[in-house]
Amino acid sequence: MNRHIIFAAALLISGTAINADTSGGITPAMMEQIKSAYQGTPTDRAIHNAIAANNIDNLAVNADNKNGFNTDFSHRVKSKGITDQQSSGRCWLFTGLNVLRAQMMDKHDLPKLELSQNYNFFWDQLEKSNLFLQGIIDTAAKPMDDKTVEWLFKNPISDGGQYTGLSDNLMKYGVVPADVMLETYSSNNTTKMRTLLGWKLKEWGLELRKLHADGTPADKLADRKTEMLGEVYRILALTLGVPPTEFTWTRKDSDGNIIDTRTYTPQSFYKEYAGNDLKNDYVMLMNDPTREYYRLYEIDYDRHAYDGQNWTYVNLPVEDIKKMAIESIKGNDMMYFSCDVGKSFDRSRGILDVNHFDYESLFGTKFGMDKADRIRTFASASSHAKTLVAVDLDESGKPRKWMVENSWGPGANDGHLIMTDRWFDEYMFRLVVDKKYITPKVKEVLKQKAVTLPAWDPMFAEEE
Fold first, then answer.
1. How confident is the model at residue 19 (pLDDT cuts 50, 70, 90)?
2. What is residue 61's DSSP assignment?
3. What is the Cα Rg of the chain in Å?
4. Which letter does DSSP use for residue 348 in this model?
5. pTM for this predicted structure
6. Residue 21: pLDDT band with limits 50, 70, 90
7. What's 179's DSSP letter?
8. Are strands 258-264 and 295-299 parallel, antiparallel or unpaired?
C-alpha cells in the first residue's frame, strides 16, 4: 500500500482530521500586526546591539539600586562556620546539620564541630530506594499510566529533600562528626551515582511489577526487594564508604585541652550531644498564597523513608511567619529555611533583592505575575534550603532585611546571603521553627486533620 495512504489512514484512525481548523494560526494580516510591535528605532537598534553581545542579566542590573545598601543587622545568631555542599543537591541536609551543630556547640561549649553529611546521606539514599521499591509493590496492580505509578517512575531517587526527611533520618540513624565519615567524590558530586541508582531502580520496578502480574506472593516480593536493596547498599558502600556503627571521639575545650575520649554509636552521640526530638518539637510553616491559610497540609510520598513522615506544614500569611522567625532569632535559635534562591540574585554581593534586575526597562514590557501566579504556573517554587540566622529591625520592630547562612562555601558576606524584606515576601516558602515560638493560632491549626495533596503537587519541589 502507498505510504501516503497509510499515513492518511493512521490520521483518521487516531481521530485527527487531515483538513484541521486553522483559524487559530498566524495569518498574513496577523503577522503584519505582530511585526509592527518592533519599530527598529535607533533605541531599538541600540538595545539589540547591546543584548546581542552581552548577558541579559548584566544589562538589566539596576545600578542605582546598589548604592547605600546597609549590611548591618540588629539581631543575629552567631553562625558556626560555612560548609560547602559542592556539586550536590544536599542543601536540606547541610542546613539541618548546621542548625543542629550550632545547638550542640552552644549547649556543650564545644569550640569546633562539623557533622558528617556523607554519613546521613548514605542512609538517605538507601531509605529513598526502599521508598521507591515498596511504592512500586504497593501500586503493582495499577496500570503503568496511573498517575502515581507514572510519578514513581519519573522520580525514583534524588539527592534533594526537605525537613521531615532530615528529622526521620537523624532520629533513626543518629549523627557522627565529619572526620568519622569523610566526604568522597561521589558525595560531593552526586549526579552520576544518582543517575546509576535511578536506572537500577527503574529496572527493578519493572521486574517487581512483572513478578506481581505473574502471581508472585507478597512475601516473595518482599524477599526480592531486600535483595535489590542489598545491591543498593553495595553501590553506596563503593561510592560513599561504609557507615560506622561505632567510633571513638575526643572532646576538647575552647583552649584545645582534652576533656575525655570515649566510644559512641551514632545514635548515642546524637542522644548525648543533641537529644532534641526533631519529629515532635518542631513545625514546618509555609507561605503558599494559592491555598487557604491557617490549614494543615501534607503531601503524599513527600518523604525520604517509607515508614517516615510525609512533609506536613501549616500554611500561613507571610507576616505571621515573620513574627515567629523574629522571636526565634531573638531567642538565639537558628532555623531551617527554604526559598526560590535563583530569583533576583546578585551573586557577586550575595544579595537577594527584587529590585536588583530591571527587565521591564530593558525590554519595554511588564512582568506582572504575583507569588500565587508564579506558583500556579510552576514559575517559582522552593529550590534551596539555608539557615536563617539574622534579621534587621527598624525602630518600629518591622524587618528591613534578613540573613541566611548558606552551604556554598566561602563567598560574599563570609558565605552568607542577605535578603531584602520584599524579597522574603515574594520568594520565601518554608520555615521550620521550634514549637516554643509558635502562636496560639498555629497550635490550634496543628490539631486539624491534614489535607493530603498528591505527590505531583507544585509544592512537592525539593530543596537542592
1. low
2. B
3. 26
4. T
5. 0.90
6. low
7. G
8. unpaired
